[in-house]
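#data-curation
PF: Archiving a pair of folding outputs for the training set. Convention for this channel: one message per protein, sequence first, structure tokens after, nothing in between. First:
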Amino acid sequence: MNGEHFPNPPCEWSPGLPVLPIPAVYLLHGKGGSPLGTVKKIESILNQHWPGLDFVRPRLPHSDPSVQAEESVDFLRSQEIPQNALIMGISLGGLVAAKLQEAGRPDLQVIAISSPTWADGVQLEKNADRRLAFYSSSDSVIAGRADDWPKLTSFSRDLVWLSHSTDEHLKYIARLFDWYVEGMLPQWVDSIRSTSLTKQERDEIVWAAMESSQRTSREWNHSGWSGGRPRTFAEIGEAMRAGWTWHVAWGDWQHEFIARKDSRCLAAEPPEWFTPERRAMMAGTAEFFARLFELAKPEWVEKPEYFLPRLEYMSYLVSEPDDGDFMVFPPESEDALFRKIAKSPKEMLRRNVVFEARNLTIL
């Protein structure tokens, strides 16, 4: 994520609250594990919730069970992990992340999941402010090695249900991450298993429905728009010339595209009379959907005119103006702006467009 929008990142920290902006998120696997295992599943969930964040899944030396944890700490020390990065480690991954933090990287934010406080000759000795731990003292894998977490972190929870079978708890691990970044973890963590579907989880259902829907083979009239739903960006302009509002024309195009999943819906450029911000957003949409549905990326999206020179508040376009939680511009704080950026697809961000991915969902 481009940090140039945040020239003076905050340094204060309160227990359970994030330090924003987060320049990168590292997901660390456990002993004998792999970056292609549980942490990849976690990333697939989090990347949908926070598509603007950069996720990194390194292969740690302790992927070989015979390798000691200290080698993984040394490995992480050799990596160029950005200032204030967030590291979520599973099992031994959480311990080595916390040890790295303790051994000279207090700027790092660490979330340890089902991790021991000592293993393989590595032992935590000091409390670190930016450290969170979630574990079960009754987990047979780390039993007797997790009791000191309350003394070693300013925010921890002993969650009896959090067994070492991490794949069974992916939804709740994602909630811990989401609520941390949202700044709501202290208020919500104790209701983590009684909470109904979160906004992100509802979006997951919608995205899954959009991706799994059968492509329809509706007739394509090459004579152009004739009063039905717009199929291309050019036809959105024709519909608006005919009196349609932007929101109706755009929403109908989204429905038409998702029904067809046809690259021709992305092939035509937006009308030249649209604002630069709107045209940049539409180019980001075309690039994002082309990747998501494995369609050919239109060549026109790389034209310089579809890249804004700077982040523009007006580049964030409202599609639900009555939803008070949907948009606040100008943002009330740098943290609020960061969260909106973190929820925007990278195809938007590289054009300096802030447009949350959930704006592209349809029911």
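PF: Second:
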Amino acid sequence: MELSRIQFIFNRAASLTFVKKKLMITSLVLAFCGLLVVFFRGLAIHASQWILMSLTYLPFFLCAGVLLSLGIFLVRIYHDEIKQKPLIYNKVLGNSSGLMLGASYFSIPIILSYLLLWILLGIFALLQEIPGFGRFFSVILAFGPFLLNLACLLLCVLNLALLFFVSPIIAFKGLNRVAVSEVLMRRLSGDLFSNLALGTIALLPLVAVAGFLLLAAFLTGSVGYVSEHPLQNVLQWFFIMIPFTILLSPAVVFFFNFAAEAHVLASQQKQEAHDRAG
């Protein structure tokens, strides 16, 4: 994969990131996701560690389904922008509504897998509370919670990969699961290193911006702007969430712009390789 081509698609994706309507729509969707996170975080106050784990991971997986639908819409908008077609957002939304609704169901197997892992982790927590034998189980079976927590983190990575690789495939190919699986397998089996490198490039702005915003939120709490009352705490998170989502929206738009570019680039390279072989 040529560096000049990556540079070109990166710059083109960045140039079409700061579009007012796209940023506004993305901010509204992120605000909805932020409400879910704040709601679950409010429920997690004074909860046990087992419940806290569920209320930490579950909104992430729920938001991933919403973001997948958003990604399909943004990829289709970006495709029309590249082709310099006249953009009517309501028309694109109407044509994409079926795909967006159906795509959200791709997150259901991941959510069910997480709930299964959470239940298994709860079993280990119950074994630890058995009088007399609990300490023995917590030592001997320590590898169990470790592997379960590792699996939860891997599900988070899988969700990010789903957003990057699957959203452009659904946007261009539709909801046929067999076709989506075939295109995805062909892409990943062709040049795994290049695909992972492109995914990393797409994530860099998102991770950098989210890191700075989380650091700012942490510093805000460290200097005393945190209430001890649970309701006031939740309200503070809510009002912090509003600028958080607005500032994060350009990185999300760029992520899906670059995902569309990477998908097209991978298809072009595969076709060029096929032509050379022929």
